[in-house]
Design brief:
This protein is an alpha/beta fold. It folds into two domains: 3-115, Enolase-like, N-terminal domain (Enolase-like, domain 1, 2-Layer Sandwich); 120-355, Alpha-Beta Barrel (TIM Barrel), CATH 3.20.20.120. The chain has helices spanning 59-73, 81-90, 96-113, 118-121, 140-152, 166-179, 196-208, 225-232, 248-256, 267-270, 273-285, 299-311, 323-326, and strands spanning 3-20, 25-38, 43-48, 128-130, 133-135, 157-161, 185-189, 215-217, 239-241, 262-265, 289-292, 316-319, 333-334, 337-339, 342-344, 353-355, 360-361. The strands form four sheets. The protein has an eight-stranded parallel β-sheet. Strands 3-2-1-17 form a four-stranded antiparallel β-sheet, sandwiched between helices. Strands 4-15-14 form a three-stranded antiparallel β-sheet, with no helix packed on it. Helix 1 crosses helix 3 (96-113). The radius of gyration is 20 Å and the shape is globular. The structure holds ligand LOXFGALJ and magnesium ion. Residues 189, 191, 217-218, 242 line the site of magnesium ion (MG). Mg(2+) binds at residues 189, 217, 242. This is Dipeptide epimerase. GO terms for molecular function: metal ion binding; racemase and epimerase activity, acting on amino acids and derivatives.
């Protein structure tokens, strides 16, 4: 099974609602699909959504990074899998979403070459997973209405986007908590919006009112490691690192410092599946559980995340793989079923992606 070509295409998809965090507002999904073709007709699908404010990438930079790696991959056999992964990672630093998109397509092909679903190749099982749903940051009434809608659709965990204004954030959390049944788990994501002091004041404030969220995600700037430690020593709410952890080195530092309670693994930050698996193992060695998350991205890369969740189900105990549910429609044909909070893996080979509809090839 020899790689004969690599093509990239734009995937554009409308959102049900604008996606708003303290870092950015997005009105429609635009990401990059990678299609690796082999001489026997096999196709591997990959995908990645550039998130300039988090990974520093754009569609243009992803295309350039993939073009750089292409000559090292085309003409090689899928059976040389480890060498292929090595090429993805060794010719350029950073560019983690581009690397992830390529890796996902390579893993899809490798699993197909073994006639296995990807989760089986990775040691996982066919399972149904539960994801949360993200509630975009906005006015309190709108956020409450969105939360109630999500609960009526069966979501048990809601990820509340905050972080633009600590005072307003307290009001949002209190109002949302009051509006919901206690059984609904609240995950708070400030996307780096607060200082360490503000985080402690705010979290202690809601804790005094009896509100303990499932976790607070990335309250402070990505590089504010001391800030994370400062917060962890002063609040009861568990602390989850997102933008602070891309690599194993990032994670090891935070885990050794005991500065966090949970790790958010995203393929777009780790540079794909291989490092995501290693990050789950490293966290497990430290006795720390993980969430697998996603950017605002499409069904191919989110599906890759579900396979990783299956492979590391002992340590990946939480899913934030809601990006497919945030889309109003998309052109990807997949046998992995997305039904609101429920995501069900299938028996199909590789990722379980059959086609990508009409895409704009670049
Ligand atoms: C979509 C997912 N639930 C999510 O909230 N991801 C964000 C970043 C998404 C983006 O800006 O594309 C996060 O966890 O910070
Ligand atoms: Mg986050």
């Amino acid at each position: 099974m020899k790689i004969s070509g690599i093509r990239t295409a734009l995937l554009k998809a409308p959102l049900k609602n604008p996606f708003v965090t303290s870092l950015r507002r997005v009105d429609a999904l635009e990401d990059l699909v990678v299609i690796i073709e082999c001489d026997d007709g096999s196709i591997g699908y990959g995908e990645g959504a550039p998130t300039p404010v988090i990974t520093g990438e754009t569609i243009g930079s992803m295309r350039a990074a993939i073009a750089l790696m292409e000559p090292f991959l085309v003409g090689r056999e899928i059976e040389e899998f480890d060498t292929l992964l090595d090429h993805v990672h060794s010719h350029i630093i950073k560019n983690t979403t581009a690397k992830s998109a390529l890796e996902i397509a390579l893993y899809d092909l490798k699993a197909k070459s073994l006639s296995l679903p990807l989760y089986r190749m990775l040691g996982g099982e066919k399972r149904v997973f539960e994801t949360d749903l993200t509630i975009s940051m906005g006015e309190i009434d709108k956020m409450i209405a969105d939360c109630l809608d999500a609960v009526s659709l069966g979501y048990n965990s809601l990820k509340i986007k905050i972080g633009d204004d600590p005072q307003k954030d307290i009001e949002r959390i209190i109002a949302i908590h009051e509006a919901l049944d206690d059984s609904i788990r609240l995950r708070l994501d400030a996307n780096q919006g607060w200082t360490a002091k503000q985080s402690v004041e705010l979290l202690q404030g809601i804790e005094k009112r009896g509100i303990i969220a499932e976790f607070i995600e990335q309250p402070v700037a990505a590089d504010d490691i001391e800030g994370l430690k400062y917060i962890k020593e002063r609040v009861q709410t568990p602390l989850l690192a997102d933008e602070s952890i891309f690599s194993l080195k990032d994670a090891r530092r935070l885990l050794e410092l005991e500065a966090i309670d949970y790790v958010n693994i995203k393929l777009a930050k780790t540079g794909g599946i291989s490092e995501a698996l290693a990050l789950a193992d490293l966290s497990s060695d430290f006795g720390v559980k993980c969430m697998i998350g996603c950017m605002l991205e499409g069904p191919i890369s989110v599906t890759a995340g579900v396979h990783v969740a299956s492979a590391k189900a002992d340590v990946i105990t939480m899913l934030d793989l809601d990006a497919v549910s945030l889309l109003a429609s998309h052109p990807v044909e997949t046998s992995v079923q997305y039904d609101q909070s429920q995501i069900a893996l299938s028996d199909d080979l590789g990722l379980g992606i059959f086609g990508v509809g009409e895409l704009q090839f670049l």
